[in-house]
Amino acid sequence: MSELVDVIAGRRFEREPAIPCPLCGEWNEPRVIKARYGMLASVAECLPCRLAYQTPRPSDEASQAYMNMRWSSGDSYVADAGAKLTQARKNAQIVREAVPEARTLLDFGAGSGAFVLAAREAGFDAVGVERSEAARARARASYGLELLEAMPEDTHYDVVTLWDVIEHLRDPVALLKWLRSRMAPGGVIVLETGNYENWKRLAQGDTWGLYLLDHQFYFTPASLKMVARKAGFAEFRLTRRGRRIPAPMPAQPSHRDLLTHSLYDRAMKDWPKHGDINVMIALAKVPAAAAVTASRPSIAGAGQGLEIVGGKRKARGLERILQLFRRGGADDRSGDAGA
Ligand SMILES: [Zn+2]
Fold this sequence. Notes:
alpha+beta, Rossmann fold, about 20% strand, binds zinc ion
């Protein structure tokens, strides 16, 4: 395990010591996966927490070298300003519908700034914080936008957004706690991240596109909710955005079609509320002391495309859910002629 070495732009980086599950402290055996961009991910699953995480982790230096490589690479993920803005505008609409009254917004880990721009278009008084110099330079070049290097002092925001950020953090509970302290009572945090419990991961196995060197966590709705709750947020909800369903079964289905549909059906049977969501957009609130008596969730849109996750999970048998969670899909692809 400790002989795992990350090679980034010709430099070699040792991994950190192995870690137990950051939520419950249990030790779980990791599996090394060939991630994108020729990198490695070493992923362990904690079944009771329904959380997957990297152990041993890449070093902080490796993560920084990786992010610099990505931001200066000019690949489509970072370079396509038009596509990023289109997606950001959709996301801004989701946030606007969820919090129609909110005014101030902080985008934490703003990347190239597309969401800050879209949020301003949607009527928010929005700022973005981004620690990568390369990303801030790209925001300037792409949108003429000045992102902040650090959080402004003494400002409390109505909304804080983290798009594709939380899975990169080494201590998400601590960071969310700190962000909560910079939010107004009743403020809403928006967390977007991949969903480990979705049929695409089962179908794609180790080729799932979200296995990345710098993804420290692979959340499920349950573990993401746990993190939000530990950080002091309440009223966790998952939007119904980011759903993907397989193409309709053709008249002459291939082995791959049959496999895809069976994995989809299996995921939807075990996780009917989110088995079809590949990328989650979750919302949670800073509890407002005065609103304790309110039984009705005060996030507008609840019940219209938003749903409460967890709490009401049918007791299907924990074992069964855990078994399906564990099945990564690698075994399932053994008979897959296509891949
Ligand atoms: Zn755990």
